[in-house]
Amino acid sequence: MNMDKKSYARYVEARAPRSPILKNCLWAFLVGGGICLFAEGLNQIFTRLCGMTVENAGTTTAIILVLIAVVLTGLGLFDRIAKRAGGGTLVPITGFANAVASPAIDARSEGFVLGVGAKIFTVAGPVLLYGTAAGTLYGIIYWICTLFAA
Predict the structure, then answer these.
(1) Fewest beta carbons within 10 Å, which of 18, 128, 131, 139?
(2) More confident residue, 72 or 17
(3) Helix or strand or coil: residue 86?
């Protein structure tokens, strides 16, 4: 079956299932908002009831969110939630925790060094690398701009 690119594109478009974009966006919004609401609730409990500083409450909340995401990943529940909620589960801290934990869990049968140690950052590694590089570059640009502004 020889087809040119345009014919193939029409063929695929005619047979590809339609994505319910509005429903997917609504689920992502509700789940992502629910995660953020839960985090804010924890933050308020830690500051108002436990007497923590805002900084310590934020750190404690972040640790709890990472812990919950890793436990849900380990139990296989995070992927099931993400399948339904889509991008809503990718609230930065929970999505990042899942991206680090998933390869580590998958590679545990290969051992701690060559399995978990070697593969734990396969998904999150590029984010760390390019995020750090971009932050450094922007910092240098900002520093240079402040030299000329003074």
Answers:
(1) 18
(2) 72
(3) helix
CA distance 12 to 29: 29
Please state the pTM of the whole predicted model.
0.70
Rounded Cα–Cα distance for residues 108 and 120 (Å): 10
> Does residue 2 come out as left (phi exceeding 0), alpha (psi in the -120 to 50 range) or beta?
beta
Q: How many other β-carbons are positioned within 10 Å of the β-carbon of residue 127?
A: 15
Task: Specify the pLDDT at position 99.
Answer: 84
Q: Could you give the C-alpha distances from 137 to 49, 95, 146, in angstroms and in order?
A: 41, 25, 14
Among candidate residues 83, 38, 31, 47, the one with its CA nearest the CA of residue 65? 38
